[in-house]
Structure formats: structure tokens, C-alpha cells
Amino acid sequence: MKRSWNTLSQMSNGTYAVQDFERAAYRLATEQVLYATDARSRVAYHLVEDHYPDFVSALEPLGIRLERNAHYRYVVALPAHGEGAPVTLDETLALLVLRQRYDEAMRQGLIEDHGEVVVELPELQESWQALTGRAMPDVGALRALARTLKRWGVSRLVESEGDDPQPFHLRVRPAIVEIVGEQWLQRLDQHNRDEAGDADAEDDDAAA
């Protein structure tokens, strides 16, 4: 680590306490993304942005690397070795489908302010079926998935107005570009191989 939190606190002339640096580092490690546009993460984002090399050095021994996007103003923490928390198949599929929708919106110039992309449920259902060959989870399961994706900083759920036939839509956030990369494709491939292995085992049991 280049400079201790205590040194940085002293250099700020009382603007930041040691605990402010500790909390920002902990939030990066646990929440993964800090957006300048989010009220609850704005202060932590600016603290990290102003002391970026120090946070890079502090998190590197933990196997966490930082990436920042100055245009859309966010900082994302990524596992350096690709291993992450265990995820379900539906979580993996949801991330891959939303990444595909984000890339398509990018190609069509449909990116909104702060780098977000709106995905309506009919559009999500069509893409889910086309990309995965599976039916999209029901509305209740989607709400649960949306809570998980929000914690990962890649999407947020927005409730619809009263005259909208769909209950909600999703807003995909720009950090999905960094978070959903090759490792997620590898996880999907592993899920598919595991399922194929389970199916073969069931066939063997039936034959026996």
C-alpha cells in the first residue's frame, strides 16, 4: 500500500477520517461498484477517485483489481483471478441476457443518461428465450433476481406507472461491461456441462 489511511486522513486536514477510507474500501470489496450518480455511494466514489492509486494498492493483496470509467463515473472492483461468489444458473443467464441487451443498445445508440439502458419485460422475455433456449422466470422470480443484480451494481428495477401493463422494467447499468465478461461465459459452460452430466447419470440409472 502506498500510503496508510492514517497518512491520507492527516493529508486531508480533517476532511476524511481513517474510518472513511476503511468504509470505502470495504464497500468496494462487498458491493463491487460505486457510482457517482447514486446518492448513497457518491461520497465513497469521490473518495476513491481522489485517492485511486492508494485504493488500488490496498485491494491488490486481496486479489481485487479496480477499474474506473471516467465518462459514466463509476469504480468497479473485480476478482483478479476470475473466481467469484457461487451463482445460480438463473443469475448467470440473467447477467448474460442483460449484457447482450446492453451491447445491442450500445450498437443502436440507445444508451441513456449515466450510461443506462432500459429493458422492458417483453423484450427481456424474447431475448431470454432466443439466447438461452429456456423460458424466462416468472415475475416473482425476476424480482428476486433483480435484487441480486442490484447488489452487484449491474441493474436496477424500476416499478411501472399505473397505466403500464407490465409491472416493472429493468435499467441495465454501465458497469455490466466490466463485470460480465469471459468468466461468466465459462460459468455458463460449466453449468451446461454439469446439467449434461446429471442427465447422463439419470439415463444410466434408468437403464440399470
UniProtKB/TrEMBL annotation:
- A Pfam family it matches: DUF4194
Give the top-rank taxon of the lineage listed in the UniProt record for this protein: Bacteria
Q: What is this protein called?
A: DUF4194 domain-containing protein
Q: Which organism is it from?
A: Stenotrophomonas nitritireducens
